[in-house]
Every structure is written in C-alpha cells, then in structure tokens.
Amino acid sequence: MTSTDLSFRYRLETQPPRLGPGGVTRGASVKQFPASQGIAGVSMRLAPGGMREMHWHANAAEWAYVVSGSCRTTILNPDGGSAIDTFAPGDVWYFPRGWGHSIQGLGPEECHFILIFDSGDFSEDHTFSVTDWLAHTPEAALAQNLGIAPADCAGLPRGEAYFALGPVPDDRSPDSAPRARPELTSRHRYPLHAQEPRRVPGGGTQRTVTVDEFPLSTTMAGSVLEIEPGAMRELHWHPNADEWQYYLDGSAEMAVFLAEGHVVVETFEAGDIGYAPMGSGHYIRNTGPGILRVLIGFNNGRYQANDLSAWLGSNPPDVLATNLGVPRPVAEALTRRRGFLIPGA
Question: How many CB atoms lie within 10 A of CB 66?
Fold first, then answer.
C-alpha cells in the first residue's frame, strides 16, 4: 500500500471489542491501521475490580492516559524494584519495554484509559501474560518453581486469563496499598491535568509531558489539546517523532501533507484515532460547536514542533515576498503573526 492509498483516520471505538470478566478493549496496530507505522494504541475499560492481568510487552513501551474513573497499577522492574500507584482522570503512566505490570479498576465507576505504544507492530493479542505462561509450563517445573505440590498445580489457570474480575482494593479493603505520605508524582505517574497549560486566548490550551517532566518516559511524550470552536492547531510538523491522536471530545478536520502535491484531508469524531508520520505537515481544526479535546502521543521522549507561523516569522520580509509572490506589506504582516493555536474568525 502506498502513501497515496492511506487513510490517516481509524474509527477505533466502533470496532468489535475483546471482552472478558471485568474488561473491554479495542486496539489498533499497523495491521488494522496501516498508516500508523510507528505507534499503536488501545482503548481499554475496566469495571470496578476488573483487572488486566500481570503481563509484559517485549517489543514496546507503554504510555497511558486516564480518561475517566480510577485504577491501580503494579510494576516490577528488572533491578528487582517494584511500585504500586493509583491513577485518576488526567494522570499519565509509563512502563518501559519488558517491565511486568498489572492494571485494576478501583471504582466506583468504570475506568477508561488510552494506552499508546512506541511500536506500530505492537499487538495486545501477543503480549506475554502470566496465566498463559504458567498454563503452558511443565507441571513438575512449575511445582518446583512455585514451591507447591504437583497436585496444587491443577488449581491454576489452564489458559490465558487476559482479564480477571476480583474484589475492589479500595481504601476500605486490607488489600489497599499503604502510602506513608502524599505525593504529586511518582516514578511511574505524572498528573498531566494538574499542569498549568500553555494558553492562547481564543485558541485553546496545551498540556505536554516529556522526559523533562517525567524522567522515566525516555521513549514517549504526550499532549492534551483543548481547541476552542472554530480554532485550529496551526500547520506544523514534528522532526523527531510520529504523532498518534485519540479524539476525546468534539469533531475536527485534520490534514496530512506528504509532499509532492499530496494532502489527505479527513474528518474526525470522538473515539476516532488519527496519525501524522514523522516530518509530515499537518493541522487540526475544530469543526464543532464545543471544545475539541485531543490526546496526542509521540514516539520520542522529547517534544519538538516546527510551526508555520514561527517559520514565516523567522524570515526577512523580502524572502517571503519573493518566495510566496505577495506584496511586501503582506509579507511584513506574515512575519508578525505568531500562532500555535489560531483563534477562529
């Protein structure tokens, strides 16, 4: 498939889900969404007590954003350290490739979160799960490793659980994880929604987390854009990363410029995902009556963007007048405009 055949929109939330006890998931890798060569994503929902079982990913790091509800994660890292954290709406987590972890809904309502992976070839269906591993290990080796009688192995799962449903480990439960002092951040958690955003009056806001704010997240960065009605994230490109988009609320127009006269213009609604390859020009314009909210993931820990208004403004007026074929007063006006988020008419 060539770039001229690609669609840069995928209707993620309309796809048939994978269901299990306490959980629902929909995912899109490059297999389902061919344009998304460098990043894959998953929309997952956990009921109170619902658990995405203990597992690890061999080919991708995991970056997540909590849309609604709350959840608890556990993590084991290769040096033997571990952590237990809780997450609420607007929080972000990051688990490096190969680190074992689990996720469980805390209630009282369903927890919805978006998982973004720094590999387009990632697939939730080919993750390494603890129940799958134990179910396919010879019984004698399993009994020896776990220190149980061979007969007790019969009570272990006979296949992959993927999702499991158990009691809610809330603060009324003895299984709630104790924490000696309050903390705004932890090694694996960053409270993105608590950040004071970059703000353009009439245009909207941007909250961004990179490796500078979240040191563990070396391979991924992320943003949440809130764009006012009629406003737009101006024409720009990212020189160091692909851009993966999940449309949280509202409706939008997004166009990807692929050079040699090729631009793909598409419309998006809440629950859709979009993609702009590294180096491709693109914009996002709010076409609805309300605020447009877009979650964006990048497969690089550093955020870099070249905005059209900044590029035009960095050139002398005579360069713009000659290059664009416009009168000098128009060129001078172009050098004074600074955008990022452009208000509507």
Answer: 21
What the block records as the tokens of 151 is 């007969």
Peptide bond into 108 cis (omega under 30): yes
Can you tell me which residue has the tokens 């793909």? 264
Separation between Cα atoms, residue 244 and residue 246, nearest integer Å: 7
Characterize 249-266 residue by residue with b for buried, 16 or more Cβ atoms within 10 angstroms of its Cβ, and e for exposed: ebbbebbbbbeeeeebee
The CA-CA-CA angle for residues 129, 130, 135, to 5°, reads: 105
Alpha-carbon span 265 to 74, nearest angstrom = 41
Task: Provide the b/e sequence for 149-168 (b: ≥16 CB within 10 Å).
Answer: eeeebeeeeeebbbbbbeeb
* pLDDT tens digits, 79-92: 889 999 999 999 99
Q: Look up residue 92 and give its two tokens.
A: 């972000």
Between CA 335 and CA 317 the distance in angstroms is 7
Find residue 232's DSSP bridge partners. 285, 342
Prediction pTM value: 0.95
311, two tokens = 């590029």
Q: What percent of the chain has pLDDT over 90?
A: 85
Q: What is the DSSP string of 169-208?
A: --TTSTTSPP-SS--S--SSEEEGGGSPPEEETTTEEEEE
Extract the tokens encoding 315: 């050139």
Nearest CA among 234, 244, 229, 236 for reference residue 292: 229
CA distance 291 to 341: 13
Report how far residue 36's alpha carbon sits from residue 243's, in angstroms, rounded to the nearest whole number. 9
> Do 285 and 325 contact (CB within 8 A), yes or no?
no
Q: Whose structure tokens read 């490059």?
A: 30
DSSP 276: E
Q: How far is CA 320 from CA 131, 143, 316, in A?
A: 62, 74, 7
**CB–CB of 43/299 below 8 Å?**
no
CA distance 243 to 199: 21
pLDDT tens digits, residue range 174-229? 888 788 888 888 899 999 999 999 999 999 999 999 999 999 999 999 999 999 99
Which amino acids are annotated catalytic? Answer: 52, 55, 57, 62, 101, 124
On the CB side of 102, how many CA atoms lie within 13 Å of its CA?
20
